[in-house]
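Pipeline run #58 for the internal structure catalog. This entry was flagged by the ingest filter as a single-chain record with no existing model, so it goes straight to prediction. Upstream metadata was stripped on purpose; only the residue string is passed forward. Reviewer on rotation: M.T. Logging verbosity set to normal.
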Amino acid sequence: WQFPCEIKPDHKPVASNYYLIGEPAVGERLILNYNYYDENMDRERDTEVVWQRSQDGVTYTDIDGVDTTLTDRLRQPAINYVLTEQDVGCYIRCKLTVKNSTSDGEPVYTDPIGVVYVKPAVESVALSVSEGVATAAFAAVEGCTANVWWETALSENGYYVKVAGANGKTLNTAGLEGR
């Protein structure tokens, strides 16, 4: 017996629904999500993920030192990127080229995420004034330090200026009346 066998031409794999998830803040993890499709049902293999950054959102450069080849999407760091100080002020995106054992898909790019920022070092602040001394109580974010300075204004909605020499948690308010 002979069975008719139709040989299908090889089709390139295709990436769809590709996007980044995550908060654009230093220390946060961005995760690449995408769907893989191959008309021939070829399995995904050695897909390439290139993380890129841009200061203007137009011209992107590859981020060095990041693992870029996916051999098994479920256990690979290439679909994750932890934002660093070098990313501050930048947009981040991924260039994704899905592959199988016989062909490469066309490169696609995620929409950028950003602008990357540094999270505040202080979570909450409470001010109190007692007997001519103003005191600031605050909770610093774990692993961060906070610099303290005092500002004053001549009116409630006025222009604020730093109080010279006031850089601790307490401030002697003598001489600041009316401000």
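catalog note: The mean pLDDT is 83.
catalog note: The two ends are 100 Å apart (CA to CA).
status: ready for reviewer M.T.
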